[in-house]
Structures are given as structure tokens and as C-alpha cells.
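Exercise 7b. C-alpha cells:
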């Protein structure tokens, strides 16, 4: 049964520059279902990673479309326009995981004052963190004035928060420094902020090394979050001392060069993203040093929610999130992209890497929001 309805942006699962707009017929709501009009959503390099890893990590499974084409998940806001569920009211604003489309039908379950889960059968086996919808009226992180930053950064910063927590839990693998590729990406910036804040709090922590393209080095340095910043052409300037790598880029040549340069000083190698999606490494290539491990944020989130409880998890995240929002206000410019043609053009720019790191893109399939 179709849950994604109306206007949709389809992406070829194996050739992600191949896209098309589709129109799917609406349908009547079934028992307990709710119709959501998707208001706005963010589109970042993280969403490109969703597409690149769509099969491996089941991102295409959240909002099924065709066999060859899929719907990239995005984070945004939606309004309840019709409800067959007495616990969810028309007019409510919710935040969560949506398709690149203008409408979605969900079946709320586990309904609380602050959230609900989409209980559609095809989502039952998928990570619960992606199936939760936050009811904005009771969300302590929600402010109308910061909606754009929430869409752009809340899911990315949650990953940043969890990365810092994971490495702190493992005592940074006894390393003196952390090396992060794609240092201009929003997830990398958030992670650098999280390491920076934790180091300030504890009085100790790893040195923070950022790697970026030559074009973005000045921007990355201007953030004052990385202790050292180098272009990919200057990897030999990285100190050869005990290190761990967080790879946000997925660039085959860069990752191989870092592994070779640090060699036996590299204690741990972590894969988070694939912003350089067209330069990912062949699975058969053997790297010097430790085998890269995929960091799957929902697993660390579920672990901490069990240990801290959802409330404790939310409180810890909220404290660091508020600090990050103040930092972001100094450098990010939010841009709104309205309508099919403009979204298609902007999508191509994000995928080919020509969007500036200080740009934050908000898409509006339904046109300008009220």
C-alpha cells in the first residue's frame, strides 16, 4: 500500500545524478492513519550519503518507490492535514524523516505527548530512531525561529554528538589526535565542536586535525574548531603520532594516503559518510593499518537510550545542541529552494560538490511555506 503520495523526486539507485519527478495518486486514509503535508526539508551532503549507501544500509526501504528508482530520506517538518487517529490532531506540526515529496501517510503508534512512531509494516524492521516523529508543540529543542537550523543540523549534530560519545567511551583508542576528512562538511564541523567542548569540560582530549580541499581551507580555519587544518595535498604535514581517523568523505585516494602516512600510528579508522561519493574505494583494496569500521549512529543512539533513558539522552544532546546553534549563527547562510526545477538544479549541485560549505539548503516541494 502506497504511503508516499503526490509529487515525488525519484533518484536512480545506482546512478544518482539520474533523477525525475513523479506524480503518485492520492488515496483515502485507513484506520488510525494520518496524512502529512511536507512543509520544508533540508538537503545536505549527508543525504547524498543516504543515496550512496541506500542499498547497504536500507535507506531506500523507508519510502519504497520503483525498483530502479528510490526516494532519498530527508529531515524536515510537516503539518497534519487529515487524521483518522483520535490521538493526533489536524494542524499539528511534526519533525522527522520524510521522502523528497510533498506528502506522506503514516500510522502513528507508541503515541506520547512528545512523539509517535510510524507503524507502517514496511518500516517495522528499520531503526526506530528514523521512524520517530517529534510533536513540535512539546519538543524542548523546537523554536520557530530556528526551524531551518533544526532541519539542517539536528540529525547531523546528533551523529556528531554520538561520534564524540563513542570515541570518549573507548578513551579515544589511546590516541593523541583525531584526523577528520571533509572538515568543511556540517557533520565534521559538528563533531569538531563536540570534541572541542568535551576537551574544554574535561581539560584534556585529542588534538583535532581537519582535512579539506584547498578551496575550503580558509573557511575551515575561520571556524576556530580545528587545531590544525591541511589541504588534501598536504597530508604529509600531519604529525605521525597515535591517531584515529574519522572519514566523512569516502575518497579512496585520500583514505589510502592517510593510512599509509600514519601507518602503525593509526589506532582506529572510522567511516561515517561519502561526500566524495564518486571516489569511493573498491571493496577489494587493502589498506595499510586497521580495517575501516562503519559508524552507524542509530546503534550508538539505541545503546545510550537504553543506558541513559530517552529523557537523559535528550537532555545531554540538548545541552551541546544549544551551544552549537550559537556557533553556527556566525557562519551559516540559509537558502530556500522552491519548486521542481529549482530543486532539481540544486540537487545536481549538491551531488557534484559545488555547494559552498557555509550554505544551508532548505527545499520546498509545495512552494513557499506560509
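Sequence design result:
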Amino acid at each position: 500500500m502506497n504511503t508516499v503520495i503526490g509529487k515525488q523526486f525519484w533518484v536512480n539507485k545506482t546512478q544518482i545524478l539520474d533523477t525525475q519527478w513523479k506524480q503518485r495518486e492520492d488515496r483515502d486514509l485507513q484506520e488510525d492513519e494520518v496524512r502529512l503535508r511536507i512543509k520544508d526539508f533540508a538537503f545536505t551532503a549527508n543525504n547524498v550519503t543516504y543515496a550512496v549507501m541506500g542499498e547497504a544500509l536500507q535507506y531506500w526501504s523507508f519510502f519504497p518507490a520503483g525498483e530502479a528508482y528510490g526516494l532519498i530520506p530527508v529531515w524536515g517538518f510537516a503539518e497534519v492535514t487529515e487524521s483518522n487517529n483520535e490521538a493526533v490532531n489536524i494542524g499539528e506540526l511534526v519533525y522527522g524523516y520524510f521522502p523528497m515529496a510533498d506528502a506522506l501517510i503514516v500510522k502513528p503508534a507508541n503515541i506520547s505527548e512528545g512523539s509517535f512512531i510510524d507503524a507502517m509494516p514496511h518500516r517495522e524492521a528499520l531503526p526506530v530512531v528514523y521512524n520517530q516523529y517529534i510533536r513540535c508543540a512539546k519538543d524542548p529543542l523546537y523554536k520557530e525561529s530556528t526551524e531551518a537550523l533544526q532541519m539542517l543540523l539536528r540529525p547531523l549534530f546528533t551523529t556528531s554528538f554520538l561520534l564524540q560519545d563513542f570515541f570518549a567511551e573507548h578513551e579515544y583508542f589511546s590516541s593523541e589526535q583525531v584526523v577528520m576528512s571533509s572538515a568543511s562538511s556540517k557533520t565534521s564541523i559538528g563533531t569538531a565542536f563536540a570534541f572541542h567542548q568535551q576537551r574544554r569540560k574535561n581539560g584534556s582530549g585529542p588534538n583535532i586535525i581537519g582535512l579539506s580541499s584547498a578551496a575550503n581551507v580558509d573557511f575551515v580555519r575561520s571556524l576556530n574548531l580545528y587545531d590544525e587544518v591541511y589541504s588534501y595535498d598536504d597530508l604529509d604535514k600531519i604529525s605521525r603520532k597515535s591517531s584515529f581517523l574519522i572519514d566523512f568523505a569516502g575518497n579512496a585516494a585520500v583514505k589510502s594516503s592517510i593510512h599509509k602516512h600514519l601507518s602503525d600510528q593509526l589506532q582506529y579508522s572510522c567511516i561515517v559518510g561519502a561526500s566524495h561519493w564518486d571516489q569511493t574505494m573498491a571493496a577489494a583494496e587493502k589498506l595499510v593499518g586497521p580495517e575501516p569500521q562503519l559508524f552507524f549512529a542509530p546503534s550508538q543512539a539505541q545503546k545510550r537510550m537504553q543506558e541513559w533513558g530517552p529523557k537523559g539522552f535528550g537532555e545531554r544532546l540538548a545541552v551541546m545542541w544549544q551551544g552549537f546553534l550559537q556557533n553556527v549563527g556566525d557562519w551559516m547562510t540559509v537558502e530556500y529552494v522552491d519548486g521542481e526545477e529549482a530543486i532539481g538544479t540544486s540537487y545536481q549541485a549538491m551531488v557534484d560538490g559545488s555547494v559552498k560549505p557555509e550554505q544551508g539548503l532548505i527545499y520546498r516541494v509545495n512552494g513557499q511555506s506560509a
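Instructor comment: Confidence is low (pLDDT under 50) at residues 274-279. Residues 10 and 221 are 37 Å apart (CA to CA).
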